[in-house]
Amino acid sequence: MSAGRCLAEGLSFPEGPVVYDDGSVVVSEMAAGRITRVRPDGVTETVAETGGGPNGVARLSDGRLVVCQNGGSTFGLGPWPYDFVGCATLFRPVGPPDHPVTPALQLIEAGGEVSTLCTVFTALSGSTLPLMRPSDICVDGDGGFYVTDGGVTRGRNRGMTGLLYGTVDGGLREIVYPLEMPNGVALSPDGALLYVAETRTRRVWEFALDGPGVVSRARGLATVPSGGPLNVGGADGLCVDATGRILVATLGTGGVTVFAPTGELLGTIPADDPMTTNVAVSTDGETLFMTLASSGRLVTVRNWRVHLGAAQAPP
């Protein structure tokens, strides 16, 4: 990709970028079971060993990190998106883990100590259910956080999941159900709107909030285009910049798809890895960070709006 610069490589299926004021970026390494800091010069250091499969990461106001622990997977080269002639062969999850851990939210202290925050949630029905495969997370201005649970597939059966809200001391409760493989989640700059990406449908939902974890309205905001040689696509992690633009890490075509707050398709930032799993923007809004998971890279794009190319409307 001509617009980007590789900040770090050799990462083990990176996800969940969190950008700090000093320019460093914390990412999860899902295939290695650890959280890693990438310095502005590309030097990496281990923040914490979580085990399992750490996915989305968010930073609380006190500096601690909350991690979506999905339980782990076995990684290797496998066909994607499906096993047929013409598919790609990528480094990706290919089966259940050899050493599974309980799906959970994990809390990482400043010194790197890891503890389990919760393993269950209260469903809309009032029953207590286990987390299946926590995917992504974002923190609000009230000290709480929104969490997506991507669910699991067993044979021909798939567990339906939704959107959760919680606090460090108050546990998790379900606020939207059902969603189809919910993934990326982020708030608008004023905290009044919440965006959730569904991987398989390529849909980005917009939820209006009346308060912390209180949804008052919902609408399908946009659909991420498919593309590439197989004309496939998927919506993975997402973030929102200071002007309200929604940036969605796009599977299949690779790179990032950008929408206006109205849902208008503004364009794309391409990448050469079809498994572009997540995206974040620097605190000054000028630099975009992409995790390219199958190739194990963290890529930066300076002045990313200049490189925003035209995109086709979704089919």
UniProtKB/TrEMBL annotation:
Residues 13-293 form the SMP-30/Gluconolactonase/LRE-like region domain. Gene3D superfamilies: TolB, C-terminal domain (2.120.10.30). Pfam families: SGL. It comes from Mycobacterium paraseoulense. InterPro entries: 6-blade_b-propeller_TolB-like, SGL, SMP-30/CGR1_Lactonase. This is Gluconolaconase.
